[in-house]
Amino acid sequence: MTVLFIIVFAALLLVVVLERRALVIKARRRWGFTIILWIVAAGVGILPWWQRGSTDYLISGLFTAGVLILLTIWRQGLAPFAVINGILATRAYSALTSYTLTPDKDFVVITFYSGTMRVTRLNLLADETTVRQFLKKYAENIHSLAEAPSAE
Question: Residue 97: what are its φ and ψ, rounded to 5°?
Answer without folding.
Answer: -115, -30
